[in-house]
Amino acid sequence: MQFVSEPAPTQRDAQAALAEANNQAGRVRRADHQLGWIVLATAVIYLAVAVVVSTLPDPRQGGPVAGPAILAILLVGLVGLVYVFSRIRAYSRAAISLYFGAIVAFSLWNGIVVGVSIASRWWASGQPGYHFGISAAVAVIPLLVAARLILRR
User: Fold this and answer.
1) How far is CA 126 from the centre of its chain?
2) Among 23, 32, 111, 114, which is 20 to 30 Å from 138 by CA?
3) In a domain? residue 43
4) What is the residue range of 90's domain?
5) Stated pTM of the model
6) Does residue 101 fall inside a structural domain?
7) What are the residue ranges in the chain where pLDDT is below 50?
8) 62, 54, 48, 55: which is closest to 117 by C-alpha?
């Protein structure tokens, strides 16, 4: 059996390699935090739209300002999210798993909240508009939990 021996790195080389590894780990942590802020921003956008809809006397009929306001919220939010997302170069597997898990959990939970709201007549005609806002506040719980988990990492 033959062994190939490489010279051991000098102390200076080892310190430089360790510093570079710490630098890269810091970049990944910052990117993970950006994912957390993206999840939180998604929840804020959803709630902002819910606030606009909740202030309408009849959410099914809309209003002269509601449509443009909702469109503005969605466009500004989307542009902001795309900008932040485009700046992320690396992220950890755990953070991206939490991110996509949050999106899936939100989608499922939101579907359940909508279904229960309709089935229980919480969103029936004649009900006040703030019922929609309360349902939206309940629906974003998975996003808020995921944002907290990602930002705490």
Assistant:
1) 33
2) 32
3) yes
4) 26-152
5) 0.76
6) yes
7) none
8) 54
